């Protein structure tokens, strides 16, 4: 297979967010196996609320969509806010609607790894489930393993999650090699 392009989308506006660090770690693992990687986080995905008639006038949104079009695999990460994904990540995913007329509609046939972080297991797991539901609606193929991280526990959450991130990336690679 050609060199896959793995795109990570999500995080927060905070430069040191746990979600952003986990997305970055996942992309490092993907790069180890020869993938080309792109991280879409922070200001890069802090778009105005989705308005289909106006969205394509934004260069930032056009660049975002072009990166998604070039992706072979996707990793979506969100912090858990009140038991679900953040508004910023949801709004970025709402803009995927602009791919509805593409040859590959939305994320059709694409493996999608998921990462959810929260200050407790309940919110992390419910956020992971919300992400899984959205990916199904966008025709993506969520990996069997999604990574839920309780950032309220002591220690380095990135180091603790590394084995799960590796397994998730291996599942994405397996899908891409088919």
Automatic annotation (TrEMBL):
Q: Does the keyword Flavoprotein apply?
A: yes
**A single MF term (Gene Ontology):** oxidoreductase activity
Q: What organism is recorded for this protein?
A: Stakelama saccharophila
Q: What is the lineage of its organism?
A: Bacteria, Pseudomonadati, Pseudomonadota, Alphaproteobacteria, Sphingomonadales
Q: NADPH-dependent FMN reductase-like domain spans which residues?
A: 5-150
Q: Which InterPro entries match?
A: Flavoprotein-like_sf (IPR029039), FMN_Rdtase-like_dom (IPR005025), NAD(P)H-dep_FMN_reductase (IPR051814)
- Which keywords, in A-to-Z order, does the entry hold? Flavoprotein, FMN, Oxidoreductase
- Give the record's family classification: Belongs to the SsuE family.
Q: What is this protein called?
A: NAD(P)H-dependent oxidoreductase
Q: What is its EC number?
A: 1.-.-.-
Q: Give the top-level enzyme category.
A: oxidoreductase
């Amino acid at each position: 297979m050609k060199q896959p392009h793995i795109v990570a989308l999500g995080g927060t506006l905070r430069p040191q967010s746990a979600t952003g660090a986990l997305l970055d770690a996942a992309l490092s693992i993907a790069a180890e196996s020869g993938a080309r990687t792109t991280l879409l986080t922070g200001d890069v995905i802090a778009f105005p609320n989705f308005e289909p008639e106006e969205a394509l006038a934004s260069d930032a949104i056009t660049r975002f969509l072009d990166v998604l079009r070039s992706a072979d695999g996707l990793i979506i990460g969100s912090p858990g806010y009140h038991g679900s994904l953040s508004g910023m990540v949801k709004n970025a995913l709402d803009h995927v609607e602009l791919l509805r007329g593409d040859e590959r509609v939305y994320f059709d046939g694409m493996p999608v790894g998921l990462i959810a972080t929260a200050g407790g297991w309940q919110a992390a797991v419910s956020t992971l489930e919300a992400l899984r539901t959205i990916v199904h609606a966008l025709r993506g193929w969520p990996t069997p393993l999604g990574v839920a991280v309780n950032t309220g526990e002591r220690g380095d959450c990135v180091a603790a999650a590394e084995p799960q991130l590796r397994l998730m990336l291996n599942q994405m690679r397996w899908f891409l090699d088919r």
